[in-house]
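Hi R.,

As promised on Friday, here is the backbone we talked about, encoded as C-alpha cells. Could you run it through your design pipeline when you get a chance and send me back a sequence?
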C-alpha cells in the first residue's frame, strides 16, 4: 500500500482510540471546571454521555474479546498478539459519534459524523488489523451502548427537573 495512503489510515485510526476519547473527555472536564455557567450547561451532556458511552462500550468489547479469543489477521510485517473480535476502535468511534449525533439531532451533522465513523472503522480493516465482521460488530455495540447511555441520561435529567 502507498505510504501516503497508509499514513492517512493510521491518522484516522487515532480517532477510534480509547485513549483519544479519554483525553478529549479529560480536556472537556478541565474546560468545564473553568467555564461560565452557560458553557458548563452545554458541556455537561458531553461529559455525562460521551465518557460513559466510550468506557462502557470498550468494557463490553474487551469482555467479548476474552470470550471469543479470535486472533487478528496477520497482514503486514508484524502480527499483533491481541484479539480481533470485535473492533475496539469501531466500538469507541461509533459510541462517541452516536451519542454526539443524538444530542445535535441535525441530519447534516449526523451524516458527516457517520461517514467519519465509517472511515475510522474502515481504517482498521485497511491497516490489516481487523476483518469486516470485527468492525461491523464493534460498530453495532458502540451504537447500542450510546443509545442506552443517552436514554439513561435523558431519564436522569427528567427526574432532576421533577425534583427541582
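Update: got your reply. Pasting your designed sequence below so it's all in one thread:
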Amino acid at each position: 500500500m502507498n505510504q501516503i495512503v497508509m499514513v492517512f489510515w493510521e491518522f484516522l485510526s487515532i480517532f477510534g482510540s480509547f485513549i483519544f476519547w479519554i483525553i478529549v473527555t479529560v480536556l472537556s472536564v478541565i474546560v468545564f471546571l473553568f467555564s461560565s455557567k452557560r458553557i458548563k450547561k452545554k458541556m455537561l451532556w458531553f461529559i455525562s454521555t460521551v465518557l460513559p458511552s466510550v468506557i462502557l462500550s470498550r468494557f463490553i468489547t474487551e469482555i467479548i474479546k476474552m470470550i471469543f479469543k479470535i486472533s487478528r489477521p496477520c497482514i503486514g510485517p508484524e502480527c499483533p498478539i491481541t484479539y480481533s473480535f470485535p473492533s475496539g476502535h469501531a466500538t469507541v468511534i461509533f459510541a462517541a459519534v452516536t451519542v454526539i449525533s443524538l444530542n445535535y439531532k441535525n441530519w447534516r451533522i449526523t451524516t458527516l459524523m457517520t461517514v467519519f465513523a465509517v472511515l475510522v472503522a474502515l481504517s482498521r480493516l485497511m491497516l490489516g488489523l481487523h476483518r469486516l465482521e470485527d468492525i461491523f460488530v464493534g460498530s453495532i455495540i458502540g451504537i447500542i451502548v450510546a443509545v442506552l447511555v443517552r436514554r439513561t441520561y435523558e431519564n436522569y435529567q427528567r427526574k432532576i427537573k421533577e425534583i427541582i
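One thing I noticed while checking it: The mean pLDDT is 89.

Thanks again,
M.
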